[in-house]
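Dear colleagues,

As part of the handover before I leave the project, I'm documenting each prediction I ran so the next person doesn't have to rerun anything. This entry is a single chain, and its sequence is reproduced below.
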Amino acid sequence: MSHQFDSVLVANRGEIAVRVIRSAQAAGYRTIAVYSEADVDAPHVALADEAVFIGPAPAKESYLDPARILDAAARTGAQAIHPGYGFLSENADFAAACADAGLVFIGPSAEAIELMGNKAAAKRRMLDAGVPCIPGYQSQDQSDAALLAAADEIGMPIMVKAAAGGGGRGMRLVNHMDDFLPALEAARSEAENAFGSGELILEKAVLQPRHVEIQVFGDSQGNVIHLGERDCSVQRRHQKVVEEAPCPIMTPELRAAMGDAAVAAAKSIAYVGAGTVEFLLDRDQHFYFLEMNTRLQVEHPVTELVTDIDLVDLQLQVAQGVALPCNQEDVSLYGHAIEVRLYAEDTVNNFLPASGLALAWEPPEGEGIRVDHGLFSGQMVSPFYDPMVAKIIAYGEDRDTARRRLVRALRQTVLFGIATNREFLIDVLQRESFADGEATTAFIEEEFPDGVQQPAPSEPELGVAALLQYLQAEEDSLYERVSDDASLTAMSGARSIASSFAYSIDDELQSVSVLSRGSDCYEVCVAHKTLQLELIDSASEGRLRLALDGIQQDVAYSFVDGDTVALQCRGRAFTLTNELGLSAADRDAEGSGAVLAPMHGNLLALKVGIGAVVSRGDELAIMEAMKMEHRLLAQIDGVVNAIHGVEGQQIAAGALVLEIEPATP
């Protein structure tokens, strides 16, 4: 089969599809996008030269269906397929099917994908290649007895991992033998659902390590080089949140040793294309093979920024069958880059994935800032796919410059309508241990032992919210007027009348009053404090510049409805509802025993039946959303008296799953 091609189908969506399409077009390739029902209006669709509809929103019926992807390639005459990451990017059968169809799969061989995609087989191969590995169990006997015996021999603490997957799914940390069998059951279930295989491996837990990965690149002539390392230690639920290059504690000697090991790993499987060899690095700078990702990584931009190499363009060159254009001696690292993943998730509620309408999206700009995204204002962020909606990356001549630039960029980032981790990321970057380069994989547990807390809005922020709603009401009143006579606009009179608002803060109503003083000046009273607000500029929609007690600042905002406003000032964002605009029924609507779906998703399992006696905290059901399993727990003691959800079916956020009759006091 010829390696030559001049058209590329991108078998992905979102920010990575946009990223690949741009590099491919810059290199002169004709690009083809694919899209599901959920992505009809997505940016990657409009950006591509051609686009093909491939089916319903659920990934299994569209982006994960090889037949639909191959059909789209055939219909458009595509000669190559770039899988991005996720979806079919590490599916060996799909890579083989591309080859059988005469298509160039922009990635490694099906054999390499299959070998490295199974953690057990990969670890056996790495041991043979002399790559340092963590002590553990990776044999084919998957009986509970064999795994129990191995766990007893390895000793606690221990990691249980899905052999066939990654991304934190099918993974459990076990500290006590009493918890081992339940961890096996949970990991198997999640692994089977996510990857179609319940095979597990065990590894001795390396406590408080750094997660350091090496970017490798191979060509079809047998050349393999590495492009330095990335530190990906800041993680939640074993999924990366912050990534940087280079690693803050890297030395030339350690980089050479880790790079040599990564290159040896890639050469042992005749690797072609972009790949990443991941290691755990302990306090004594001993490193251990973790896994190999046989694709482009989410965090590849930080490597691009410090090496000045376009990795997607390099993928396209290698896929054409040409040799790598550089050797190891040509690779140098300059400066520092840090990337954060902007997730649609509720950080306060254990990072639960979120979805909804992006009322406003304003990516940041500035020196050294790069944003990879596939978003637009008014777009529906779907519950069917990964919750990462954008990547924000900062480059600087040194680490602290990159860190400061990234904090400022995040303060400027506006995304209303969806819960995000934006403020959590700012908090992470400003923590002393992160600023000092000391973060390990235990960072979030250590720095946020009680979870992530959402600070209540301050008095000035409540005042700004009330002023925004006051101005909106004023505008609505003027719009609906029937006369231009100022005396009939209800905005003039012999005496000034304050407008009242009230917001629920920590289950208590906080009253706010707004009084116009003329000439764009307002007096706002909050909690017995009087604030002076002056409207400086409101030329752009969704943006105001205000002077608060004489200090000017920018405010971004979006009205959710007549009573609710989302606003962001000084990097802090809130969504506030004027309770005086709500009916008593709206305010009091709380189901005593109603169990609602916290997000759109699939109801995997119901753990109780009608008549079951449950206590607060008991597991009631399991849902899957955005590739993660979530357990619904009882909030009260009582008896299950109704079940509305159906196992195996999709349910919407807020849908009633089951009901509990409260226990009699």
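Residues 481-495, 583-591 have pLDDT under 50 and may be disordered. The chain has five domains: 7-106, 135-204, 210-445, 459-477+497-584, 590-662.

All the best with the project,
I.
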